[in-house]
């Protein structure tokens, strides 16, 4: 009997649910002010899954935020492989979704096909755009080169060895755009300060560099980072989703000699165990963009114009410095703010060819 | 009737049931056990159950009813998504198609005493060649499809044949070689997709053009099910004939049972290895053609998904026989198709189906474990041997 009571108590604590009161809650209606339960907001992930601590997860947060704010019904479908995209799209159409968000360029074909066949349903696709604009597809792009430019400048300024490194997951535009911006930020620092900080792992002119080959394998990320560290880099910029976490492991193992800058989300929130080595993060505001796209459909304000997240509209940004706040000199912080103003104002032009273009 | 009190002298008299029936029972029991494990996971992960457990003391029955309805709804959605109508059934068969061919590739090698971990690589090579012929060449209907399929078979057969040849000539262990060749194949594909020959014009990401309509497997009506499924069944019959009715197949099985004895009996062990791996590779290549010519999928770095690896579990569950492999492939296909539906309706994570598949195989590979739960199951000393063969071969 004692054991049973203890077991029950543990279950109660684990559930985090008002264990203290322990009384049955009264039947309650749907929470939240506005109620659009009939409106179905749907999302299909790519093969990374919704728990990738990166791209799919951030987009999914946007869906959840929209659902909460507007009182919608959420339907999500996770894809396990590339084979699942057409199936999941068809299933979403069959589920009578009002808006379907496709996460990632891998779903482009399936999205275009479903959109052309179902003019009544609105679609949004993250990080991609149909070859020819489709009336009911809104492309969501992000010019992360802008905030990566700041990150490159920051890294160059913070490096003691005069060498910084980056590596990517797979050589595709949504990845290389970070590396391009980072490279240009380092170059800008060198020009401004007449320094000679070298960037390892990416050559913007040749569009070639160091890649893990996937977004899943942490060991490869760790190898790549170790490789850069051996060559002298003391700041690592991994652009490889969960695989990049291996890079953070390598940085952490260096006991303070090597630090890193994270991408997509604020690393101190999404991968808090590595916060001590994270100078900052390049945030890609997929959550905000997805939420806005869904909300626009609810409010009947949908359009198929390309959305581009920039420093100006907050669609991309440099995250707070967290534990490095005291180590980043005030002067450098001012310079980073100035760079932001200059990029928005057009004084600094970013050359990267993979920046999303307005339609 | 022989019972446990009198140990049987002859293997055939182990129990009243024939060996295949016992193996079938073990497999069925494994599925039941896996569903129980899955049910526990569903209950633990369900929000309603957690909520009800929060006031367990006040209304304990709520927890149980919530648990029951969570499991019931999830499994109902799984079943409906797998076999509840024409579309779900066609979807299950579509998902099963490459798994059957891949499973046969692994089974055939098993029977020859080889552990073919390389179905993934062979499948990718098949997909590369079939895909290339499919989108780069433009031939008349029927002919185009046949040429593309043959290209896929050749791709897989070459990739498998290399393994057999290395094993026969140098004794290189096929497990190591196939694993490494998997990497070579996937990186080759990734590299090819960055070249202008393979990359779709106007796209910067690694994706090829869609294959010509002439080179695609004809589909049945509005479903995604295609003629490739029939080819998979033909392949299964072929493997059955090869193993059980042909002289070559007898040699393959003899080598698989005891390579040294076969050698003494005058058979060429090396020849058997090469033949087995060439045919196995071609079967995996066929699975590759089904991926790229069948399900409306361009060549991408994810074209193989995890089919080549799932094929190993399919072959294990099918116990290395063609019929067993077909049935196991159908089961896994149904679980895949039903899993997608289950997450849509009950928002149960898709990974649960992966857990189910893995648990089924775990129980099948450990018949003693299943027997300790289901006491009535008779002993069959023959089962399990095929599973452990590869590493010793």
Automatic annotation (TrEMBL), chain A:
Record's keyword annotation contains Flavoprotein: no
Leader peptide range in chain numbering: 1-19
Locations listed in the record: Cell membrane
Keywords for the protein's UniProt record, in alphabetical order: Cell membrane, Lipoprotein, Membrane, Signal
Domain of life: Bacteria
A family per Pfam: Bmp
SUPFAM superfamilies documented for this protein: Periplasmic binding protein-like I (SSF53822)
Sections of the chain in a coiled coil: none
Gene3D superfamilies named in the record: 3.40.50.2300
Gene Ontology CC terms, in alphabetical order: plasma membrane
Domain ABC transporter substrate-binding protein PnrA-like: 41-319
Membrane topology: Lipid-anchor
Family: Belongs to the BMP lipoprotein family.
Name the UniProt record assigns to this protein: BMP family ABC transporter substrate-binding protein
Organism per entry: Kribbella antibiotica
Automatic annotation (TrEMBL), chain B:
Subcellular location: Cell membrane
Name of a matching Pfam family: BPD_transp_2
Single Gene Ontology MF annotation: transmembrane transporter activity
Cell membrane keyword on record: yes
Membrane-topology annotation of the record: Multi-pass membrane protein
Membrane spanning residue stretches: 20-44, 114-137, 143-166, 175-193, 225-243, 272-293, 325-344, 350-370
Any one GO cellular component localisation term in the record: plasma membrane
InterPro entries for the chain: ABC_transp_permease
Record key words, sorted: Cell membrane, Membrane, Transmembrane, Transmembrane helix
Cell membrane keyword on record: yes
PANTHER family named in the record: ABC TRANSPORTER, PERMEASE PROTEIN, GUANOSINE ABC TRANSPORTER PERMEASE PROTEIN NUPP
Protein name, as recorded: ABC transporter permease
Organism: Kribbella antibiotica
Record lineage: Bacteria, Bacillati, Actinomycetota, Actinomycetes, Propionibacteriales
């Amino acid at each position: 009997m004692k054991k049973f009571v203890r077991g029950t108590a543990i279950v109660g604590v684990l559930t985090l649910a008002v264990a203290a009161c322990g009384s049955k809650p009264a039947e309650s209606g749907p929470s939240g002010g506005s109620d659009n339960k009939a409106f179905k907001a749907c999302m299909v992930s790519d093969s990374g899954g919704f728990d990738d601590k990166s791209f799919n997860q951030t987009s999914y947060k946007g869906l959840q935020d929209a659902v909460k704010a507007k009182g919608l019904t959420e339907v999500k479908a996770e894809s396990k492989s590339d084979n699942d995209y057409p199936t999941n799209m068809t299933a979403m159409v069959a589920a009578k979704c009002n808006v379907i968000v496709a996460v990632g360029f891998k779903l482009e074909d399936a999205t275009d096909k479903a959109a052309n066949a179902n003019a009544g349903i609105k679609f949004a696709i993250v990080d991609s755009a149909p070859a020819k604009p489709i009336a009911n597809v809104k492309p969501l792009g992000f010019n992360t080169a802008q905030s990566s430019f700041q990150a490159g400048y920051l890294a160059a300024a913070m490096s003691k060895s005069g060498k910084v490194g980056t590596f990517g997951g797979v050589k595709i535009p949504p990845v290389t755009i970070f590396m391009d911006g980072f490279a240009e930020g380092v170059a800008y620092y060198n020009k401004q300060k007449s320094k000679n900080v070298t960037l390892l792992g990416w050559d913007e002119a040749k569009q070639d560099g160091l890649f893990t080959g996937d977004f899943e394998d942490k060991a490869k990320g760790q190898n790549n980072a170790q490789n850069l560290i051996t060559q002298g880099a003391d700041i690592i910029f991994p652009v490889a989703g969960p695989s990049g976490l291996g890079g953070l492991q390598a940085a952490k193992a260096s006991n303070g000699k090597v630090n890193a800058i994270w991408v997509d989300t604020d690393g101190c929130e999404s991968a808090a165990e590595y916060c001590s080595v994270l100078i900052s993060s390049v945030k890609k505001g997929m959550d905000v963009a997805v939420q806005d796209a869904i909300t626009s459909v609810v409010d009947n304000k949908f359009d198929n114009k390309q959305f581009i997240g920039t420093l100006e509209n907050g669609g991309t940004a440099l995250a707070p410095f967290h534990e490095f706040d005291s180590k980043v000199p005030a002067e450098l912080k001012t310079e980073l703010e100035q760079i932001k103003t200059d990029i928005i104002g057009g004084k600094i032009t970013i050359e990267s060819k993979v920046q999303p273009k307005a339609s | 009737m022989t019972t446990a009190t009198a140990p049987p002298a002859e293997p055939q008299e182990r129990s009243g049931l024939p060996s295949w029936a016992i193996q079938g029972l073990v497999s069925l029991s494994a599925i039941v056990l896996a569903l129980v494990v899955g049910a526990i996971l569903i209950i633990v992960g369900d929000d309603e159950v957690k909520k009800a457990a929060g006031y367990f003391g006040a209304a304990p029955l709520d927890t149980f009813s919530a648990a029951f309805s969570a499991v019931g709804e999830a499994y109902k959605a799984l079943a409906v998504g797998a076999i509840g109508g024409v579309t779900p059934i066609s979807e299950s068969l579509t998902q099963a198609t490459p798994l059957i061919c891949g499973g046969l590739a692994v089974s055939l090698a098993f029977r020859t005493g080889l552990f073919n971990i390389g179905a993934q690589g062979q499948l990718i090579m098949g997909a590369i060649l079939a895909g290339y012929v499919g989108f780069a060449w433009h031939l008349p209907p029927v002919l185009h499809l046949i040429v593309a399929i043959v290209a896929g078979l050749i791709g897989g057969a070459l990739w498998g044949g290399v393994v057999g040849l290395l094993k026969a000539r140098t004794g290189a262990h096929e497990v190591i070689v196939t694993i490494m060749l998997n990497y070579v194949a996937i990186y080759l594909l990734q590299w090819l997709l960055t070249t202008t020959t393979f990359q779709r014009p106007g796209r910067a990401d690694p994706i090829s053009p869609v294959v010509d309509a002439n080179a695609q497997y004809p589909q049945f009506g509005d479903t995604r099910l295609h003629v490739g499924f029939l080819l998979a069944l033909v392949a299964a019959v072929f493997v059955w004939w090869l193993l059980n009715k042909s002289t070559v197949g007898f040699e393959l099985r003899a080598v698989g049972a005891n390579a040294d004895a076969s050698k003494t009996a005058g058979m060429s062990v090396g020849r058997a290895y090469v033949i087995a791996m060439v045919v196995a590779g071609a079967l995996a290549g066929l699975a590759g053609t089904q991926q790229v010519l069948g399900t409306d999928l361009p060549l991408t770095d994810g074209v193989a998904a995890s089919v080549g690896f799932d094929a190993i579990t399919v072959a294990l569950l099918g116990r290395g026989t063609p019929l067993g492999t077909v049935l196991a492939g159908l089961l896994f296909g149904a679980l895949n198709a039903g899993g997608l539906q289950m997450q849509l309706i009950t928002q149960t994570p898709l990974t649960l189906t992966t857990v189910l598949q893995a648990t089924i195989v775990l129980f099948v590979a450990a018949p003693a474990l299943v027997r300790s739960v289901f006491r009535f199951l008779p002993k069959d000393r023959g089962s399990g041997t095929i599973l452990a063969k590869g590493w010793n071969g």
